[in-house]
Design goal:
Shape: elongated
Number of helices: 5
Distance between the termini: 47 Å
Largest sheet: none
Helix content: over 70%
Strand content: under 5%
Oligomer: single chain
Structural class: mainly alpha
Order of helices and strands: HHHHH
Amino acid sequence: MDTSPLDFDKGKFDAVWRRVMKAGSYTPDAPPVPAVPGDAETLRAFMDDEYCDARVYAALSAKSRGSMRQTLQHIAADERYHYKKLKAKYYILTGKTYTPPGSCPYVRSVAETLRLRYTAERQGAEAYADAAAETYSAELAALYKSLGAEEAQHAEQIGSLLEEML
């Protein structure tokens, strides 16, 4: 069953909003209202991707040398940073922490894995752009746009690495 981002209990939202807006009525136990129902799920999906990406790039860098290794280590660090930024926003939004499921990246061929990562980074940039357009949270939209731009930059970097390799 698909739900629209606007399918939420308006009466419940209004009651929470009134409670939060009253001076002194905020309690630390009261969960923040998501900007759009579904933002938490979107953040979890992005965290899963970024966590896995960081591990794949770390594995790729271990199989590489020289400037390629440095570039892949830099991308891995970027992906870990993306994960941490998303994790912080998730905590702010939900009051809960989230840890992605463990993954064990398997890299058989550096060139083939880079080819797949090039496509994944381009798709990631598009996914962030879509998420930025779908949320009503200006703060999340700005984060998604920023991360999307970095994902597009990663695709360019990977394209350059492939040009050097082949």
